[in-house]
Amino acid sequence: RSERFTQCCNHISDAIDGIYKKLARNEAAQAYLGPDNPEEPYLDGINYNCVAPGKRFQPMSNLSGGEKTIAALALLFSIHNYQPAPFFVLDEIDAALDNTNIGKVASYIRDHTTNLQTIVISLKEEFYGHADALVGITPGDGDCLVSKVYLFDLTKFYDK
Amino acid sequence: RSERFTQCCNHISDAIDGIYKKLARNEAAQAYLGPDNPEEPYLDGINYNCVAPGKRFQPMSNLSGGEKTIAALALLFSIHNYQPAPFFVLDEIDAALDNTNIGKVASYIRDHTTNLQTIVISLKEEFYGHADALVGITPGDGDCLVSKVYLFDLTKFYDK
Amino acid sequence: SFLQYIEMENFKSYRGHVVVGPLKQFTAVIGPNGSGKSNFMDAISFVMGEKTTSLRVKRLSDLIHGSSIGRPVARSCYVTAKFIVNGEYQLEFQRSVIGGSSEYRINGNSVSSSAYLARLEKMGINVKAKNFLVFQGAVENIAMKTPKERTSLFEEIS
Amino acid sequence: SFLQYIEMENFKSYRGHVVVGPLKQFTAVIGPNGSGKSNFMDAISFVMGEKTTSLRVKRLSDLIHGSSIGRPVARSCYVTAKFIVNGEYQLEFQRSVIGGSSEYRINGNSVSSSAYLARLEKMGINVKAKNFLVFQGAVENIAMKTPKERTSLFEEIS
Ligand SMILES: Nc1ncnc2c1ncn2[C@@H]1O[C@H](COP(=O)(O)OP(=O)(O)OP(=O)(O)O)[C@@H](O)[C@H]1O
Ligand SMILES: Nc1ncnc2c1ncn2[C@@H]1O[C@H](COP(=O)(O)OP(=O)(O)OP(=O)(O)O)[C@@H](O)[C@H]1O
Ligand SMILES: [Mg+2]
Ligand SMILES: [Mg+2]
């Protein structure tokens, strides 16, 4: 049991720096993940620290809203690297991201996630414009909300 | 003391329905604010309920992210109506709003807040495009983050 | 495996029988505020075994269409997830609310909840691992967990 | 009264002496992630009397430029808010961090914190009333307070 835990921990901490660099598209970005107590990792906590591109090492609580979102996605994709779920559902993860970071996240999803299917909910064209298909949901008539669903296959419209 | 409380409560509950209708630009929108215990309001809680346009009365926890943001702004502007602060600072309040609701909030700020100065932080052109002036902040060089500030007076560019 | 279709029957704001799909490698769900986008995510989370508090309701019966205004249109609702496995055969998971409790089916055969969840886990789907569903407003918290919380997350995954 | 300028001296990511303004009736602050927009809001909140936990720091000295990487550039920092009242005269509020504590000035004269906050309250500015500052990510919570929380909010306002 503790062997599997250590293996999981090592796998994710090896992967996370590379994933964070790819997500931020910047070799200067750094991510560290490791146990407080390397002898017996499952007894203590696991620390996570990101150094945003162009910045220096500081506590995670100093990060801005957008920087925290990128750090969170790096961790999520690193966990997937160890234990791949077949699909992700991400509800408005782009809310705190500026357009540059939205572009980076969208191209990471497109280029670096081969065995992963992604379903995102988004209000921003800069994000959902990268999708293969759009599921449009609109409110229909009724006493209470009735959701109507439309499907657009975008792969028909542009040559990928 | 309790007299002032009751007066405050009555003032805000009288104002909130009208403000919510103006914010949602829809006469079907309804907002209710009132004490649990009308005899002695300060002893109990104060209930707040919104009926989003096109919907029926339901608990506030059923509202979607965007609907909650509009309900929150209606309350904020109603409190201002009773006890006006000279200015507001709103940090990315548009994060959960779709473009239609962003337009509604921006025009409410422009048209209905005479004695209120508003400073918003936003990533969305659909929102900051309505401002009189833009304060642009960019990261400069340095060991740690150094914020550089630029100012654009937009009133010079378009006829209001 | 690949999630191809989600079918809903009287689930939250989806009235009657509604089929969403075929889904692609990268699918985006769009629409105005309050139209039912997060309800669609609740449908996927529900059929993957998520508990009611993560679905923004207090009781399972609140998931039935119309119960938000106290007038449920039916006594039950269900969601079916249709997967294609290795490009060949279809694998269907169905979870329904009947009366006040859940029923589970795999390819139409009724199974226990533990068999259902075990079969999902074999595909890498484990809602307790919180490694594939990111709910609205929750993304930043993933990075801000305490070291102890992270340890228990890794324990669940390994 | 109208907030015309915010002046900062070594406050958070603002190095040296930085003046922002003139501000207008409707001013928007824009810029990339992590550039210092919320730090600007922290400057306004700080000079209006907000406590350190709402400014995302543990100690007042963390507000000094450079302390985020353990290398503060100075022993103090300050923020000045310059108002125009009734279109005529200027009213300046200044709050600074010197050593580990705050100092307060109105129009250049040193005052106690209670005199400072009382003068702000006369203008309708009361940070305890939470009625004019909405921090990043906090807007939805305003509508979702419990009835009891709403009562204490109204008590503070009235
Ligand atoms: N059982 C139900 N039957 C019918 N409607 C329901 C039911 N449960 C919730 N709803 C409705 O669903 C709406 C919320 O939908 P949802 O949260 O999916 O919106 P959304 O599209 O995600 O919006 P946003 O973009 O603001 O996040 C509520 O207004 C509520 O009335
Ligand atoms: N005392 C300080 N000195 C220098 N830099 C600091 C100090 N305190 C915080 N910072 C920096 O400020 C940055 C955060 O800035 P801020 O939260 O204002 O970003 P933002 O523009 O609001 O971004 P977002 O759009 O993502 O919300 C951090 O990266 C941190 O390094
Ligand atoms: Mg939603
Ligand atoms: Mg910010």
TrEMBL record, chains A, B:
<comment type="similarity">
    <text>Belongs to the SMC family. SMC1 subfamily.</text>
</comment>
<protein>
    <recommendedName>
        <fullName>Structural maintenance of chromosomes protein</fullName>
    </recommendedName>
</protein>
